[in-house]
Structures are given as structure tokens and as C-alpha cells.
Amino acid sequence: MITKEQAAEVVRLFHAEKWKIGTIAAQLGLHHGTVRRTLAREGMAAPSRVSKPSIVAPYVPLIVETLDTYPRLPASRLYAMAKERGYQGSPDHFRRSVAQHRPRPAAEAYLRLRTLPGEQAQVDWAHFGTHTVGSAERQLMAFVMVLSFSRMVFLRFYLSAAMPSFLHGHVSAFGFFGGVPRVLLYDNLKSAVLERKGDAIRFHPTLLELSAHYRYEPRPVAVARGNEKGRVERAIQYIRTSFFPARKYRDLDDLNQQALEWCQTTAAERRSQENEKQLVRDAFESERPSLLGLPEHSFICDERTPADIGKTPYVRFDLNDYSVPATVTRRSVTVVASLERVRIFDGVELVAEHDRSWDRRHTVENPAHIEALAEAKRKAAEHRGLDRLYRAAPSSRALFRALAQQGKNLGGATITLIKQLDLNGAAEVEAAIAEALKRSTPHLAAVRHVLERRRYERGQPPVAGRHLSTDERIQGPIVTPHPLTDYDNIGKEPQ
């Protein structure tokens, strides 16, 4: 309402000064509608706006007629049709005109859905960004299940929305509720519905196994009918506003522990939608007896996948490498992975077990596997050396039997004789071993003594120099020799 003084001023400025309505409104700080109503009350109707005919006006019948037949035809196609008929205006102006004449679908009313206690729950995934594990960034996914009657919420976070996590979320939720609803509503998730044509639905076979184990009915909502699972949608929105903002956590286990406490406290202490005088916790306690009982054993959620092992004793799973014994290389195995452990089976035999890594391109090793492989390599080297000795010096078999009876280290003996074989040749080593055995001195020192004596008898220098280091500090300096007569004069009195 405006005062009489303001109304009189509006009339004066409009009638005497010939101001426009917009000018009067701006100068007096009034709305232009207030100025129009004031002039109308005083019997001075405001001049009506003279609108110019729109450039689209000749094409309105074309727009209306086409949209009656094809209500969802894009404005870009209508614009092309009008342009072919002579329209020269801009596409933006034409698009606004099409929006004004496009038929609107009739507003649809929805019934408020009510369920009986223990009758139904709703399930969905929600994305909450990423979580860093080592050098890898994993998707942080929230599994949410809501009981439709009491609105009790179960929340658990995973690093993947794959089937094993989907199954684990169900098992954890049933354990949290202490029972199973008779019907579970799903969106058209790939983990739930593989294919759908009209009312014909093909469920994921693993989900059917889960539902049979817990004796509930899986039921997908109709396409484009989000209202049918509005309870879980509102619960996810509640999680985004009440639980997750500014949440600090060390790792995924800490986040899930906080989520569990939130479900048991904050989420359970809100007012019930069915009865505002009752808390969700109280409504849940009245609903709990109506839930189906849990089976004796929980459903196994482990992921099973075949894998091939190559030359190196490692199995690749989820972009990480897990060690296996060297005895199972170059064959196919089965990887059975839970959220915490990775087990590797050769047939029905468990050959390796590791903590699961959620990093990427990470190597997880059992030190025993690596040590066993290194020991096998050492033994293989020893066997190769023995084979070479046996072929080059047949008498070495008898020497090794004698050394074994003495309790000597056969590995070290093998290395020593291989070196002598490289330095002196097969014939000399065979002769030296045969002579040592003939003299009843089956020792490595005796073999070396015979080899050195035979070299001396042939007038050859000793081979010790061949073992000198190749270090430049040793090989580099030049040593000037001195006459040995100087040593004969040591201790003698000078003449």
C-alpha cells in the first residue's frame, strides 16, 4: 500500500509531466505494478504496450501442428524446417517460441507408499569421490540399505562397486538389522539386473543365489520411477549432508567404524516418518521381530577368478602381483579373494595366502617363497657344477663320496674344483684327483698341492696371480725390482 501523498504524486507525474510508468516507479521507489494499479483506481488507465508482431508468428501454425504429432521433436529440427520455409530469424529466438508452444505433460500425482513392518528394504550405491591407497586412487562407494517401515539406515563404504562388495554389503546389512526383509527393491543396477525388456527381467545369477540363501525376493523398480525407492534416495541425501561433510578418517576401516556408530546414534535418533512421536530406533525395535531370521551360515562373498602363472612365481590380481611357490609356475590357478585376504589354489590345494592390497601395481611377497626360490637356484647351480665335474673328471665322484664321509661342505668343494677346472683344464684336474685318491689323501688341499707340483714340474708359473684383484689401485702401480744380493748383506758389518 502507498500513502495518499504518493498516489497524488503518481497521478501528477503521469498526467502533468507525462512521465512513463517505469520512470515514475524508479524515481518514487515503487513497483511498476503498484503505479499501474494507482492510475487505474484514479481512472487513468495506463497505455497498453504496443507489441510488434514476432518474426516467428507466421510459423506458429507449423510449430503447433508438428508438435501435436511429434511432441518430443527437438527445436533444432523445427528450426531447420522453418528455415527451409523462409524463416530468417535467429535460432535462439525460435527455440524460445517453440518452448512456449510445446505441449506440457499432465502433472502426475503419486500415492504415498506405506509398507508393513519387515516387509521391504531399499538398496542403492552412492559415489563419494575417491580414496587414496598407496599410489592408487580408488573410487569411494557407499552401500546403503534402508528399511522402508522404520527408516533404519545401514551404511558401509567400499573401494569398488563390483559384485563382491555388493554381496558383502548385503551380508553386513542383514547382520546389522539382525534379520532379512521379505522384499528388497533395487534400481536397475548391473549387479542386480543384467537385462530388461518391458516386464521381462533377467536377474544376475549371483544375486539370485544370495536371495535364495537369505530367502528374500529381489524386485527392481520400474524404469524412470525413482519415487518407488525414494526412501533410499532421501537416506543418501541425508548421508551427504549429515555424515560425510568435513569427515576425517585414517583409513577405510576407520571410516566404516564411524559410519556404523552414526547409524546406531545420529541416524537412529531422528524422528520417525510414520509417527513423529517415535524415534527411528523405537520404530526399528518394533519392526525387528517381523524380519526373516538369518540362516545358520553367512553367504560366501569371495571373488573367484582364474589366473595364469608365467615364468616368474607371481599371480596378477586386481593389478597387483602376489607371490606363489616356485613349484607352481607355468600353470593355471584359481584366485579366491575377499575384501581382506587373497588365497591362491592349485586345484583344491591352497598354495599361497596374502593380505589383500588395494594399491595398484604393488608386489606382495611371502619371504619364504623368495627364499625357497633362491635356495632352489643355488642347488640347481650346484647340480650343474657337479654334472660338469663328473663329465670332465670322472674321479671326482669318488672324491665327493670321501668328502661326504668326512662331513665336508660339498657346495664349497664344488666351487673350488670348478675354479681349478677353469685354471688348469680337465686333464690336469682328473690326474690330480686320481693321484690324491691313490695316496689315500682325499682332500682339496691334496688336490691343489698335486696341481701346483705338476705345474712346477712342467716349468709353468703358479696360478695364484690369476686370482689377484683387477682393482686399478692394485694393478696400476709400477713396482721397481731390486737385486737380491742386498738381502745377503743384511746383518753383515760394512767393510
Describe this structure in words.
The protein has helices spanning 4-15, 21-28, 32-41, 60-69, 75-84, 91-101, 163-177, 205-214, 230-243, 252-264, 280-287, 367-392, 396-406, 410-424, 426-438, 444-457, 472-475, 485-488; strands at residues 120-133, 136-147, 153-158, 183-186, 193-197, 200-203, 217-220, 303-308, 314-317, 320-323, 332-337, 341-346, 349-355, 363-364. With 495 residues, it is an alpha+beta fold. The chain folds into 5 domains: 4-41; 57-101, no CATH class; 120-290, Ribonuclease H-like superfamily/Ribonuclease H (Nucleotidyltransferase, domain 5, 2-Layer Sandwich), CATH 3.30.420.10; 303-365, no CATH class; 375-475, no CATH class. The strands form 4 sheets. A 5-stranded mixed sheet has the order 3-2-1-4-7, with helices on both faces. Strands 8-11-12-13 form a 4-stranded antiparallel sheet, with no helix packed on it. A 3-stranded mixed sheet has the order 9-10-14, with no helix packed on it. Helix 14 (410-424) crosses helix 15 (426-438) and helix 15 (426-438) crosses helix 16 (444-457). The model has no long low-confidence stretch (mean pLDDT 85).
